[in-house]
Here is the input.
Amino acid sequence: MTLAPQFSGAPDVRREARDKVTGTARYAAEHTPPGCLYAWPVPAAVAAGRVTAVRTTDALAVHGVLTVLTHDNAPRLAEADDPILAVLQDDRVPHHGWPVALVVADTAEAAREGAGNVFVEYERDPHDVTLTEDHPGLYTPEQANGGHPAVRERGDFARAFAAAPVQIDATYRLGPLHNHPMEPHAATARWTDGHLTVHDSSQGSTAVRDSLARAFALDPAHITVVSEHVGGGFGSKGTTRPQAVLAAMAARRTGRPVKMVFPRGQLAEVVGHRAPTVQRVRLGSDLDGALAAVSHEVVTHTSTVKEFVEQAAVPARVMYGSAHSSTVHRVAALDVPSPSWMRAPGEAPGMYALESAMDELASALSLDPVELRLRNDPATEPDSGRPFSSRGLAACLREGARRFGWAGRDPRPAARQEGRLLLGTGVASATYPVLVSPCRATAHAAADGSYRIEVNATDIGTGARTVLARIAAAALDTAAERVDAVIGSSDLPAAPIAGGSSGTASWGWAVHKAATELARRVAAHRGPLPAEGLTVTADTEEESPGDSPYARHAFGAHFAETAVDAVTGEVRVRRLLGVYAAGRILNARTARSQFTGGMVMGIGMALTEGSALDRVFGDFTAKDLAAYHVPACADVPDIQAHWIDEDDRHLNPMGSKGIGEIGIVGTAAAIGNAVRHATGARLRELPLTPDRILPYLL
Here is the structure.
């Protein structure tokens, strides 16, 4: 594939920046049609069972409450494409927090008060919400998330591991984690002459439209879903969520527009979470550190509503070379909310375990951790044997080590101290697959010399408008300021979701194709353009097949310096540096923002973010941002993101790889490895909170 030569990676300011900081950018809950009503959900208070009665008299007595929807009177839905959308359809309670009623009122305050006055009776069933590595309900699924086979065997791992002179056998644990975007999940729905319009906080309004069409048995042409501005998603808005269905149901029932915003305290149980994992990693190497055997076994949970298996063992299939490999996923269906995508699903938890084990192997060999990784950098993808389209891991490790000052590191653990602070440094690799999906886009040249591109991309804070305008401008050989980018509505040409670090590659390819053809037609046109201008529509169905002869991945290297308080056990990240190989960088400003944002998320994963399920009540113990702690500015004193130039001609016309998630992938492991270097103690469970660290310091 010939790369378009015009991309400069210029640090463009995002186009919607002023709108966001001045408050003129409107989010899903900020659309208030005339006569708009407000809905408030009532969550199930038991972990398993069924609803035997719902008493609504007190709720209906609240001034302003119009109706209460329950499974007895809610509009009937057709079979949904996702079982989590089948809300208020029967009396079953599959987990704590499942919506069992919806109060609709003329103010949000009345709806909330009414919801508090709904009395629900239950028939309780025994429940189980606790995952263990030997849970009797564990089974081996056919696939993990993303369509990956749950089991992959190469060679004879057991024999090779037993024969290896150096062996690592360690188990790592991560509890449930929650997405918690700044903007809660919200939807505003209205019906007009049989046409449903929904403003939804979503990572892909085309997908939401199709889900609603199926649930309400409508032609998709009779539905418009708008997701113009989205205040973060991190995977939790990557599929249709119940707020869109509930708002549409209530609007159909009342005949008026209805707005619904899930309260922050309910999000953990209705919009997905990262499932907990118990991961056993075994590495066998020779005395020089060359890996002969790699095994990664993952135990996780799913819900009884649907199967979702975190693909945490998949990175071990592609990361380092070894002749013998075994990667296995097992899962137990528990009485828990349905897990889903969250911030580099699979790669983030899986690489934490693998990169921690690699650090343990380096210690066992008395070998520099960077050198160990370089010695096991494969020429082809171990799992498939395919050549890499480009593999910049070694360059990232070397450049990161240079920038970080790794050569001056004292390899001895617990060797550096400032007062009561124990200092240490750590490193970890990162990888994330290059994903791309078919997409459609339209490019228009106006008679006044301006241009417009239309594609149903979704900007979840990443600057999609800005980079798509730049891609179109490069193809049109014009200034980006002359290109208007229209996104965020299902009435636009259909596009895949903003997820899997695939947005720019998928949308940009279609935009580039449409703009390139438009440039050809404009050049061939004689005389002034017609008053209506020229328009070209393109799709990439043929150009973006699912299979490629190349293994396509982004890579990165993370370096961290931590200080551990020997008295309190508190861990602080002093420095964090990442270097990435992600193809051609299209916008330096927004790219650096995404890389550093991912690294900050990795700090949270390593040090602050943690949740658990209460064995007795079956609910999450951390339900809001008072209990679920995310990093603040004070937690990130020195963070740097850099990249190397890659000329990869096997990706897309832009030569770009996804950058939205690789920043988080290796960060937690690098921090964990730095804590081990600081203290001499290897902790294998995240987050590294003081209560877990103090016993090793006393």
Q: What stands out?
A: The longest strand covers residues 551-565. The two ends are 59 Å apart (CA to CA). DSSP finds 17 helices and 28 strands in the chain. The chain has a mean pLDDT of 96.
